[in-house]
Design goal:
It is built from 5 helices and 13 strands. By secondary structure, the protein is α+β, with helices and mostly antiparallel strands. The strands form 2 sheets. It has a 6-stranded antiparallel β-barrel. Strands 5-4-2-7 form a 4-stranded antiparallel beta sheet. β9 and β10 form a beta hairpin. The protein starts with a helix and ends with a strand. The N terminus is likely disordered.
């Protein structure tokens, strides 16, 4: 009879222990990758087609900042380039006369060289012809040097204008407000018609299709988990209403931290815990800030 009571007591103890087993190993909150879009140029918001809760695709234009002044500056620089282009010298045409005079002087030098050799002309005439060739050669070299410097200066000014135009075109592109990634508009900080300055936040988006459960584990639990591990994730809707998802451990903190007051761990007596992120594919029911549980 005593054995029967002992056996019954062991069964009750095992049942009690089994009943205390938690359905999760850690809890946390769901979060998403959030991106704040800032104004990259100053001006009036001519269009701004975003609303909180809207979905937006990557690269889609969300608004436009006034581009009038930038476009006018581009037109002004284009006109300046045309002026520089018209001032570029035609080197061959401008030195053609001197080059022809030099060629003729060389012919005269050769003719007098032959006459002096034959004794038909004094050597002074040959010396004068040589001097004339040297003078014309120096004139030609000076003209070429001057024209080359002028041409180089104008080319440099044209290059500078091209760079300035590219800078303005970059500013023009930045006037077009685009979404850097696919996501959902969480917050909107400006309205159409407002004057915005560079660096002013315009809206915040989040990738709500790929969510993360940020939970905390103890050092004892850390031994049993690794990156890429598949786990079970439960979205907690309250009143015992939960939805199960498949998750993957995407990040494990390399440093411990004190247990956040809003987080429960498997061992509540632990002072230091490690943060982990579990990637979850959202089906539309998970919301940012919602509580969740994870079973490793």
């Amino acid at each position: 009879m005593r054995k029967i009571f002992q056996l019954a007591g062991m069964v009750l103890m095992m049942t009690a222990c089994g009943g205390n087993e938690q359905a999760y190993d850690a809890t946390g909150t769901f979060e998403a990758t959030e991106t704040t879009v800032y104004a990259e140029q100053s001006g009036v918001l001519l269009t701004f087609n975003v609303n909180e809760g809207d979905s937006i695709s990557q690269g889609k234009t969300a608004g436009l900042i006034d581009t009038t002044q930038t476009q006018l500056k581009i037109r002004q620089l284009e006109a300046t380039k045309q002026v520089y282009q018209s001032q570029k010298p035609d080197m061959e045409r401008q030195i053609a006369a001197t080059r022809q005079q030099l060629a003729k002087a060389k012919q005269e030098e050769q003719r007098y060289r032959e006459l002096v050799a034959d004794g038909a002309a004094p050597s002074k005439m040959l010396d004068d012809a040589k001097s004339q060739v040297k003078v014309l050669q120096k004139q030609l070299d000076a003209q070429v040097s001057t024209l080359s410097t002028q041409l180089s200066t104008l080319n440099s000014q044209l290059s500078t204008a091209d760079v300035q135009i590219e800078q303005l075109r970059d500013m023009l592109r930045k006037c077009h407000i685009t979404a850097p990634a696919r996501g959902t508009i969480l917050e909107k900080y400006a309205e159409r018609g407002e004057l915005v300055a560079t660096g002013k936040p315009l809206f915040k988006i989040a990738d709500t299709q790929n969510m993360y459960l940020r939970a905390y584990v103890t050092s004892a639990q850390l031994q049993g988990i690794k990156l890429g591990q598949r786990v079970k994730v439960f979205a907690d809707y309250g009143d015992q209403q939960k939805r199960e998802y498949g998750g993957t451990i995407a990040w494990i903190s390399s440093r411990s931290e004190f247990t956040p007051k809003t987080i429960l761990t498997d061992d509540e007596r632990a002072d230091l815990v490690y943060a982990v992120k579990i990637a979850v594919k959202n089906d539309g029911y998970i919301k940012i800030g919602m509580y969740g549980e994870v079973k490793f």
